[in-house]
Amino acid sequence: METTYTGFYARFDTASKKDAAVLLGADNLVGDVFDIEFVTNDAQPVAWMKNRFGKLVGFFDADTTRRLRVLHARDWKLKAILSFVAYTDSPEPGEYWGEAALLCFAPGHEQVFTTFIQGVAKRIMDGVRPEVDLGEQGAKQILDSNGTWSPVKTVPMPSKKGGTVIMKSHRKASEKLIEQGRKGNKGCYAVSWLFLLALVALCIFGLKSCGVF
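Below the sequence we write its predicted structure tokens.
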């Protein structure tokens, strides 16, 4: 059993297509760090990802929930980083799902692992999936570097079955601008809205050119 840190990628699902809509918006960006909350459903606890705005956006299966509950019982900190969001059109009526990197650590070195998680999140923002299942040797490297060490090995995207489309796998330029605006950079926020308005105008121009309007 790990004594300091454990990490792994896990699939999450959404309650419905309607509930999944929030995952496609700017409140849930690739590379965002989520808390884990356990919600009792039919007498069984289920691990959910809770975003920075307090919304539950995706849940993990029974095996992942069980693993997280064991770590939670040891008072470990549990964090998830959104890696990608996908849509699969079968079985009907289709489903939204995705994967998150789960990084869990003992509370005695919270600042070190917070730094490490921020580094992993930044790479995931750029569409890179760093290996997070590092074992005790990897945990030692994290501690020795005060959290600045980053694994070289990466993990490929899971194989896609037919009818699957990856909706989000990295942070777009417009999303980065919106995020800067949220952090107080009003110039970036204004530019992000101008960028989005320009895209809308371009779409309308294209439709008019095709005779739709």
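The chain has two domains: 5-171, 172-213.
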